[in-house]
Design a protein that fits this description.
Layout: H1 8-11, H2 17-30, H3 43-50, H4 54-66, E1 70-73, E2 77-80, E3 90-91, H5 96-99, E4 106-117, E5 128-129, E6 133-142, E7 145-155, H6 164-169, H7 172-177, E8 184-195, H8 198-204, E9 211-221, E10 225-235, E11 239-240
Parallel strand pairs: 3-11, 5-10
Antiparallel strand pairs: 1-2, 4-6, 6-7, 7-10, 8-9, 9-10
Length: 247
């Protein structure tokens, strides 16, 4: 089996085989193994390489075609599409100033606004919880594509200071840090990698079990109160994490 064929451990996954293959083939394109304008192997060749039925290969290629990554031509074959769709690179910032910057061209859609909601459990907690939280579910868009689904829990006492403009334009940390009288004394961020469940896949327009990045951000004010908890889910195919390393 070649280095690019389906790894045996993936064949035992609960993820449908065609999705595994679509992910593998997509990586070949993004990594330049299948270069722009080049003809990719035939369905028969891919089926033999990966040890699956031709129908499974066709399903995987259908997913790539829907993403605009390949083009099929009768009697010619299947080619990597020239002029790939623009990548929605979303830099997950690792410093305070970066986290306060808004993404150019992004818009925010409010999906839910629930008063007096219970905040998610924090272990360990960097501060004491507020008496009540306002829960907001927001979806972030850029160039017509959703890239982030976020559940935001804001100290309910701060809610009267939030404007409609804040909700539609400010990221969670920028929202709370910009409120009058609020001074952030401590802020933390945690990133983990997982896969999209049915609800997340539908909200972000990705395949079920597609890779996603879970990012939790917590802000504590100078009185030691956790004024913000933001749980974001980013599409894994658009996340970029850049960190400067000391030399």
């Amino acid at each position: 089996m070649s280095a690019q064929s389906l790894p045996p451990d993936l064949t035992r996954s609960a993820v449908p085989r065609y999705i595994q293959l679509a992910t593998l083939f997509r990586a070949r394109i993004t990594q330049g193994v299948w270069q722009t304008g080049a003809r990719i192997p035939t369905v028969d060749e891919l089926a033999a390489e990966c040890g699956v039925a031709r129908a499974t290969i066709r399903q995987a290629l259908d997913a790539l075609a829907e993403d605009g990554l390949i083009e099929r031509f009768r009697a010619k074959g299947t080619f990597v599409r020239a002029g790939q769709p623009e990548r929605l690179w979303c830099e997950v910032q690792t410093d305070w100033n970066g986290l306060l910057r808004s993404r150019e061209g992004a818009r925010i859609e409010v999906l839910a606004n629930d008063p007096a909601a219970a905040a998610p459990f924090l272990d360990p907690s960097p501060g004491r919880p507020a008496p009540e939280y306002r829960h907001l579910r927001r979806r972030h868009w850029r160039n017509g594509q959703a890239f982030l689904l976020a559940d935001v829990y804001l100290d309910e006492r701060l809610w009267p200071k939030v404007t409609e403009s804040d909700l539609a334009t400010r990221t969670s940390l920028k929202l709370v840090a910009g409120l009058p009288g609020v001074k952030i004394a401590d802020a933390r961020q945690t990133l983990t990698i997982g896969s999209a469940d049915v609800a997340v896949a539908a909200a972000l327009g990705v395949a079920l079990n597609a890779p996603v990045a879970f990012v939790r951000r917590v802000a504590v004010d100078r009185r030691g109160t956790v004024v913000l908890i933001a749980d974001g889910i980013y599409r894994g195919d658009v996340v970029r994490l850049d960190m400067a390393l000391a030399t």
